[in-house]
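Record 1 of the preview.
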Amino acid sequence: MDYFAPDRSQYPVKNADGKLDVDLSSGKYLKLWHGPNHPGITGNMSVELTVCGDEVVEGKTHVGYLHRGFEKLMERRTFIQCFPIVCRICVPEPDFNEYCYAAAVEDLSGIECPERAKWIRAMVLEMGRINSYLMYLGGQAGALGLGVIGQWSTYVRDLMLDRFEELTGARIYHMFIIPGGVRDVLPEGFDGRMEETLREIERVMKDVSEVMFCNAVFKKRTVGLGVIDPSWLEPYGVTGPNARAAGVAKDVRKDYPYLIYPELDFEVSIGHDSDIFTRSDVRRRDLLVSLDLVRQILAKMPRSGPVAAVTPNVLHWKIPRGETYVRGECSRGEYGYYLVTDGSGYPRRVNVRGPSYTHAMTLLERMIVNMNISDVAALMVSLHTYPPEIER
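->
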């Protein structure tokens, strides 16, 4: 289908700092607030926009409207009491916080996660990745007026939440990956019901591909818009699909293999144009890869053996002095936990590395300059931000 790319050649040129050299006190500019509201994706944060006409001159991010202070809360709680806290740091994809925290505790305490539990953990992480991408696609399309995509993606996402509920007893905060392993084995008949869910997601994704990615209006609104220069990746800490859309194959599953990912056959999705359209397409293809990974995991997973290691009495669990950093690849890029212990029954220090912090703060403020007001929402969603990661 033919389409016309927007002509952005007349936009003012940024200076070396990525901002326009303008006098904001001249009276020619107006301040507007974009958010906070709560439709999901970027809804819990706000951007203070300075505009000249319909063009953004400056954008400043404001956070703190949702959950705050998780890292300090964990310093006043026992190791097992931290377990139900961490999943709140990323509501749409909580399982990566559970995994990173559990893996950090295991590393410092010398506990080995059983082999069967590693496979179940990987399956849960891929299920969470699928859910996160489905939410993202609905948000990206909705920011540009394609509301039907959000309805379709919410429908199939709800089917995956059924599988989470069946496996963990919960739909949102699963609290399933614990220090030492996981809480339980797969329910009887789970494989068949998961296959039905995967097939339905694939069926809907074919419609999403045609209605969203073959849509001339969507292409006109996203091709060439919000380009991330590859030279920004290292200085701004850009990872995940935002980096892969710029042609750099950053993926922790490949670069720093963990769990059972070395035993799985997959290739990460790469793009080269680094605009909103390419970032959307990379995530669409990543979602399809995750569907295949769930199938591979279920086919290769051991069906016998323990799913949790023996741990000390959790009410009196003291971990030797030490520090560690554990990372994984979530739907937005590198997710990491830096955990410091001092030999007591409480963490000495916890620091969470969530991709949203760098993508939605420094990077967004650089990219939003010269943006048209009508494109701000699309740009924000394209960076795939979950504000609690910033407020942690």
